[in-house]
From TrEMBL:
The gene is ncd-2. The keyword Iron-sulfur does not apply. It holds the Pfam family NMO. InterPro entries: Aldolase_TIM, NMO. One of its GO terms (molecular function) is nitronate monooxygenase activity. CDD domains: NPD_like. Keywords: Flavoprotein, FMN, Monooxygenase, Oxidoreductase. This is Nitronate monooxygenase.
Amino acid sequence: MKTRITELFGIRHPIIQGGMHYVGFAELASAVSNAGGLGIITGLTQKTPQDLAGEIQRCRKMTDKPFGVNLTFLPTIQAPDYPGYINAIIDGGVKIVETAGRNPQPYMPILQEAGVKIIHKCTSVRHALKAEKIGCDAVSVDGFECGGHPGEDDIPNMILLPRAAEELTIPFVASGGMADARSLVASLALGADGINMGTRFIATQEAPVHEKVKQAILSATELDTRLVLRPLRNTERVLANTAAERLLEKEKSLGSSIKIEDVIEEVAGVYPKVMMDGEIHSGVWSCGMVAGLIHDIPTCGQLIDRIMADAESIVRERLEGMLAP
Ligand SMILES: Cc1cc2nc3c(=O)[nH]c(=O)nc-3n(C[C@H](O)[C@H](O)[C@H](O)COP(=O)(O)O)c2cc1C
């Protein structure tokens, strides 16, 4: 399958693995890239730019295919050393960066000068248009279903994707709620050039996370996510667990007086405990509604091959078969 995304990134299949905190290590990124998709290392999971440089080298040893690095621009007071991380990306020869969060504009010139292609992840048509305007090569459009931060507009992909297609000139991938060939074919029909998956890739053999995390995703249905941190305008879709219920109780009782300090226990330093130690109730962690469509733990190769083979049969048999001869 050839789309503007496979052409742009030089990949075989139009499938991207979105950056995921404490999941997007070299093991997963290289497995996705070796399977013909685009694997992405999560930049900020690496504590220092030197650590990111090391992770890029590790990934390069595991794959000779293109892979990218995610740079999430957080609304924090004490910003991480973004220039340092960007140097590690450029010096490491990485040619694709997935940006997310705040506007990546301040860092675009240096990345572009180094020949790095930028795909910006955003949750609204206006932000996608802004990304196009500032020179991003592509966008990843994250619908309300997505695991992680869906923004504050609550527009599901059935509307968001065709709206993005109406407005954008640059290619975009559909993100949020993507699990299988049906997701891919539907996204292409809605105007996207490929898909980006987060939660689905956690439940794979190569995802270097605790087995309990994978089993929690397998056990979850589409009803088992919660939206937290909305009163702080930093909405996050997380797996329903004891920490999420406690956090929602706090949101209810504190109302509009809630502050970030009130929720530290549920949000700070959670990811290593969950992803590495398997303490799945130790805090809130991102998970998409798509958990309801995840029933197995394949290798990345099996998953991507299955998506591409099934997509072909959906198009050639199911869809074409519906047309009058
Ligand atoms: C556990 C987890 C951690 C994530 N961490 C990040 C992150 O650090 N930066 C980022 O840009 N997106 C992050 N995301 C969002 C994913 O890259 C992707 O956009 C999202 O998962 C797509 O929705 P889906 O889970 O329905 O596939 C994370 C998602 C999950 C599930």
